[in-house]
Each structure stands twice: as structure tokens, then as C-alpha cells.
Amino acid sequence: MTSPLQQKIKITGPSVVTANRTWDGIVIYRDTQQGWTDELADAAIVRTADEARALLAESTADDVDAIGPYIAPVIVRDDGAIEPGNLRERIRRQGVTIDLPIPA
Amino acid sequence: MPLVKKGEIVADAYLHLGDEAEIPENDSALVLAARFLADPEAILNRGHSTGVIWPNNRDLDELVPYLGKLGVVALVFPTFRDGRAYSQARLLRERYGYKGELRATGQVLRDQFVLMVRAGFDAFDVRKDADADAFAATVKRYSVFYQPTGDGRVTALHRRMQARLAANTP
Amino acid sequence: MYAYDEIDRTLVNERVSEFRDQVKRRLSGELTEDEFKMLRLMNGVYLQLHAYMLRVAIPYGTLSAPQLRKMAHVARRYDRGYGHFTTRQNIQFNWIKLADLPDALEDLASVGIHAMQTSGNCVRNVTTDQWAGVAPGEVEDPRIWAELLRQYSTMHPEFTYLPRKFKIAITASDHDRAAIKVHDIGLRLLKNASGETGFEVLVGGGLGRTPFIGKVIKPFVAGRDILSYVESILRVYNQYGRRDNIYKARIKILVHELGIEKFSAEVEEEWQAMRDSALQLDDEIVADIRSRFQYPGYQTLSDTPDELTAASADPQFERWLNNSVAKHQKPGYAIVTLSLKPIGGPPGDATADQMDAIADLADKYSFGEIRVGHEQNLALPNVAKRDLPALWQRLDELGLATPNVNLITDIIACPGLDYCSLANARAIPIAQELTRRFANHELAEMIGRLHINISGCINACGHHHVGHIGILGVEKNNAEFYQITIGGRADEGAVVGTLIGPAVPYDDVANVIEDIVESYLALRARPDELFYQTVERLGVEPFKERVYATR
């Protein structure tokens, strides 16, 4: 398996590092304080490949708290709001697109 | 890396040789398969015990003629996810009757100990110290085994039959 | 039902205790994710988009009422109140916390249920006909052999780290409900000319990126030799299966690359060297396993009870009866399929309340037994025909009597991009929309037997290749597109479907399927010519022309 650190990193716009939290599996984002947050609004935003590589390296170094960190695109609105950049990330952020058998 | 034999951490009596190092006349040595096969007799006739590190993609037929003269066969787990050496181990023990030390090398982790023991390994080059320390407790984790292998443990199917026989005998 | 004895229970408990220790070591950082991943997978634990997912085995699709109640308990206590039945006789819980998993598994172990080897590169849950033991005309109950193989493959010291996952399925009926031709090993139970029980053995079937229909490797292997023969196949595969490329690691690729003749020669050589080993099953051992399958104490009942005659006046009951109730081995009894495909619902999901209610109904009407089939429906296998009207009333109240079994709205779908970290596109909303389009039962009946299978990615968990209509989600320029195949089949005549044209966008899938079905209705030779038969007769061209003419 190629380590994420050895992969070529290409980003096409603002991005975050996301992963799942080890003990419960929920979606988390790397924040600017070298920790993790479950709020996308608090995620560290990177805009260049070098920044992305550095944030990913820092994230991957934490194998205990988080699983499988990777770079994901985001959209930054004019008012600063951050939204997931593709359908997969929207579903991870907002949940399934269907009605659950038991409403949450 | 600690070596575990008979459930205990022991010193390795074998010198691990690379492809270049000179083969010692007065020491037990563990050599790579290709080097061993280049001149097996010379290596075996040194008067000291010889072990061979056998890759997991090499046919055992080449090794079989020498089994009776080897002190160690070391089989390789390049990662713990590559399970070819389990088949080699069982074949060596169960089909070719190899009685010497069968050593697991490579990425040998705690969570594979039970399988390795059942496949016929009796020595373990353990990757982590904590795993080596936990060896004795780990291999006792399971008391039920469904498959017959060369380790001679009674299988669940046969235990049931024995229990049934015992129940029917006054 | 197979009843676990102390020996089986001990093993399951030992496994739970081992996993508890592994989880503890993972949470403390002693185990890296790389080391832990295989261990959790082999205990059924995946990491999906939103959370961990636990896949629990339902060996050969047979559940007791207490076992189903325990599933309901796990759904409520550790998850979000529902579970999802899969295409391989498993149930999945989608929202479990790693820290809770050992407790959930311990609760399941208390009723002899486990998640061992529901994932990982090992021998997976051995599946069979969900009607095993009750289907008319079956050679013998295949679950006895499935149980022998389950025991044989559980924690196998040689075959737990194979090149890739390994799936075995068994059928004992002429009509194959277990899809054995798309399994790594498919076993067809039969009796040879001298009356001896054995198997036709198929190897190398599978779906995924490179679909193959299994090939016969040996026309007859006696029952007593089946474990040694399977071991020979596994050993050849373990040694020679590719490990350099995950997409080429399944046994189907090895069989394809070597050719079936060369592969079978390798297996034969291996088998001759060990067939007389301790793996040989003597009659007493088979009899011992057989004796621990408990069969209901059937009564002698009328095959045409008054209750049934009276209820048949109700057209809704009659429709359900004709659709969801199948013939049983014993006169006076029937096999009832419970559709988990309500119109507009996610295929294969059941709520904890439904599970509890089904368990109660099983106790009341089916000798406490429930079955799970690869089509993601449940069945009550032992219902007295006189009880059918009363059972139907309750099932209808529970939303489990949609009369669509084997019809166009009985859709197989994987969880897709709503849940799965591998998916490229959603599967469930496509299925939901299709069930709404074909919600009219008269229309569905007029169309007749038609299987739509949907997968959200090339891994094909939704078996799209072998759907009469197959729908495969792909990603194109960051959008969901779907490739559509027709003419596939998963049964004894298994065949991989043919692509009919370019992928279509999410919003157009249901329209395209409607066009395909309209084409079929116009093209079929007779009302009883099934969809796949029309495709077989005419090929895909006439469908392609009609569907893509306006696109």
C-alpha cells in the first residue's frame, strides 16, 4: 500500500483533511490546532499542494485517534462558510440522502 | 527481535547470514535458500547446525531432500497478510515429516500465534517485544479447534464423538 | 435448526474475548490501524462513511426466534433501531461504535450468533438455499454440509490469510436459489448412480470487476471427501493466487489464467496426496451433525384447509398468497416469504420492532424458525396453511406483506454511496424511485418475474451483473452515472448481463428502466415469456434501439 505521504498530492481548490474517529467512527476534520474536530467549520483549510501535504503528514502521524486521513475538496462561500466539495463528502457530512427506517 | 521457543524468549543460537557473509565453520548458521541450494553439501557438512530461510513463493520440492539434515527451516511472512507460509508449514510437518525447528519470520505478530502454532511452527521471530511477552497467554486463548492439523489437537468433531461414546459407555 | 453445543459456544466466546482484547489494544494505540484492520474485518467490522458497520453471519440463512430478537436488541441498544439484510445471508448494523462492539458481539454470542469471517481474506459465511430442508424435491438438507464447512473453515490455521476473500455456496435443488455459479466454490448436492451423496463442484465464479460464471472442476466428489477436496482447492489457491494486485487476487482470476484443466490438475494432484487424511468424514460424524439439526414436529394437516378457502375471497389476500407463498415438502404447510421491499423503502432493511414482531410470528406460526435469502427477503419456512390468513393480517400490519416477491420491485441493492466507503454512486434512492414507478401491483404482475439488481460500484455487492436488469453506479466528472445491463441471471442458468449503451445520469435511470420494460412488453412473444427470455431470444439490440433512440 502506498502511504498517503508518498502519493502525489494535487489539489484543485480549497481542501481539508478528513478521517474517521477511531473509537466511534464518526467523521472528523483536522483543525488548525493539530487536533481533530467534528465541525467542518473548524477545519484547517489548505490551498496549495505543499500545505495539503504538510497537513496530511501531521494528520497521518496520529494513528491512534483517527483512521485513514485523506484530502477532500471543500467550497468556501463568500461569507466564509465551508461546505463539502463533492457528493461523497456531502453525504459524510450531512448523512444519508434517504429517510432512515427509524428517524434519527 | 525476540525469538520465542517453547513459549519462552530465548537467545538465537543461529547466526543469520546475508548473501555475502562468509559461512562460519564453527557456528550454527541460518542461510538464504538460494545460497543454500548453490552448494548444500558444503554447508551441511560443516559439523554445525544449518538452517534455511525459505521464501514463501518457492516450491518446497527443492528443500525436501535436505529436511533430515536441517536444524531450522525459517518460513517468511513478508507481511502478516500474506498467508502462503501457513501452507508450507503444514506441508513440511504433515506431508514431509519435518521434525526440526520450524520458525516463523517476517511480520510475526501476536494475533497470528494461534494459527502459526496450529500450522506447525514452534519458533517465532516476534516483531514486537510486548507480543513476545504475551506469547504464552495468547496461545492459550482458544480451547476449541475445528480442523485436524499436524499439531495433533483433537478437533471439535472428534471431541463430540468421544463425548457421545463416553455417554454411551456405562 | 442447528443447535450450538458447549463446544461451539466456547469457541464463539473465546473469539469475543480475543476481539475485546484487540479492540482495547487498538484504542490504546498498541495496535496500528494497519495491523488492526484485518482483525476487525475478520470479526465483521468495516469502517464506512459515517461510522463502523458490523456484519453478522446468519449461517446458511437460518435463524431462531431468540436469535432474531437478539438482532433487534443489538439494533436498538448499539445502533439506530434497524438492520440491513445483505445478499450473502448476513445482517449489517450501520452505526456501531468500535468501543461498543465487543459488548454487542458478546450479546450476540449468548444466542450462538457471531460475526466471525464475515469479512477479510478468509472463507466467508457459507451460504445456501434459504428454503433448505423445506423445499420440495431437494436432494437432502444442504445445511448439514454447510455446517460441516462452516466448522471446517472457522479459524482455519492455513486459510485465514488467503490472497482474497473466499465464498462458498451450496444448493440441493434443481432451481438454484443460492447463486452457486457466482461463488468461488459452488457446490451442487446430488446423488450419483449408486445412490451416494456427493457434490458437483464448481470453481472460479464471481462478480466484481471481472465477472465469471463458475466452471465445473469435478462432476462428483463424494460427501465424505468434500472437506479434503475443498482443502485442496484452497491450498492451490493460497499458494498460487495472485497477491500483487487486489483486483486479480480472487480465485476466478487464477482459474482463468491457468485454465480450468490446468487448475483442476493441480487440485487433483494435491487432493490425491491428502484425500485419505483426517479430513475424511466418516458416516458417524456426518450423522452427528445431522442429529443436531432439529426439525419441526409437523402434524398431518389438510392441504386445502377451510380457513384458506374462506380467505381466498379477499383479492388482496389472494394476490399475496399467489405471490409470496411457496410449496412446502409437507402437505398442509407452506413457505412464506416476507418482502423487505416495501414500495419506497430501502431494500433489505428491517426495524428492530419488525424483527421482534417477526420473531413472535415465527414462534406462533413457524416452529420458531426464520430464514434469510440472498434476495434480501426473509421467510417463515414452516407455516401451516390454515394459519396463512391470520399470518397475512399481521404481516400486512407490519408492512411485510408487499406482494412483490420476484417481481420488478423486489430489487436487490447494495447500501451504495449513502453508507459505503467504496461506492461511487447511490443505490438505495434508485431502488426506491423504481419501486414507486412500478408500485402498481397489476402492472408488476403483468411484467412478471423480473430481477433488478443495483450496485453502487464495480465491487458488485448488489449483484448487478446477474440481474435480469443490472444497474451499476459509476462516477463521471463528479456526478453519479449508471451503466445498465440486461439479460443477466443468477440461478442454474447463470449468465452475465450485457451492457445496453452509455451510462445514464442519476435522474434518468428510472426513465430508462421504464423504457426497457415497455420495450419488453412490446417485444415479448407471449405473456409468459419472461424478460430475460425475451433478451435471450432477441439479444440486446432491439432494447438498445428503443431506449437510446430518443436519448
How would you describe the overall organization of this protein?
The complex is a heterotrimer of chains A (104), B (170) and C (551). Chain A has 2 helices and 5 strands. Chain A is α+β, with helices and mostly antiparallel strands and 104 residues long. Chain A has a domain of 62 residues. Chain A has a 5-stranded antiparallel β-sheet with strand order 3-2-1-4-5. Chain C has 551 residues and is an alpha+beta fold. Chain C is built from 18 helices and 21 strands. In chain C, strands 16, 17, 18, 19, 20 and 21 form a 6-stranded mixed β-sheet that branches. Chains in contact: A-C, B-C. At the B-C interface, α3, α4 and α7 of B face α1, α2, α6 and α9 of C.
SSE topology sketch:
The complex is a heterotrimer of chains A (104), B (170) and C (551).
Chain A: E1 15-21, E2 27-30, E3 36-37, H1 49-60, E4 66-76, E5 82-84, H2 87-94
Antiparallel strand pairs in A: 1-2, 1-4, 2-3, 4-5
Chain B: E1 3-5, E2 8-10, E3 15-16, E4 29-32, H1 33-38, H2 40-44, E5 50-54, E6 72-77, H3 84-95, E7 101-106, H4 113-119, E8 123-125, H5 129-133, H6 135-138, H7 156-168
Parallel strand pairs in B: 3-4, 4-5, 5-6, 6-7, 7-8
Antiparallel strand pairs in B: 1-2, 1-8
Chain C: H1 6-27, H2 33-41, E1 45-47, E2 52-57, E3 62-64, H3 65-78, E4 82-85, E5 90-96, H4 101-109, E6 127-128, H5 143-153, E7 168-171, E8 185-191, E9 197-203, E10 215-222, H6 226-240, H7 251-258, H8 260-274, H9 283-291, H10 306-311, H11 315-324, E11 325-327, E12 333-338, E13 349-351, H12 352-365, E14 369-372, E15 378-384, H13 388-398, E16 412-413, H14 428-437, H15 441-447, E17 452-455, E18 469-476, E19 479-486, E20 498-499, E21 504-505, H16 509-523, H17 531-538, H18 541-548
Parallel strand pairs in C: 6-7, 7-8, 16-17, 17-18
Antiparallel strand pairs in C: 1-2, 2-5, 3-14, 4-5, 4-13, 8-9, 9-10, 11-12, 12-15, 14-15, 18-19, 19-20, 19-21
Helix pairs in contact in C: 1-2, 1-4, 3-4, 3-12, 6-8, 7-8, 12-13, 14-16, 16-18
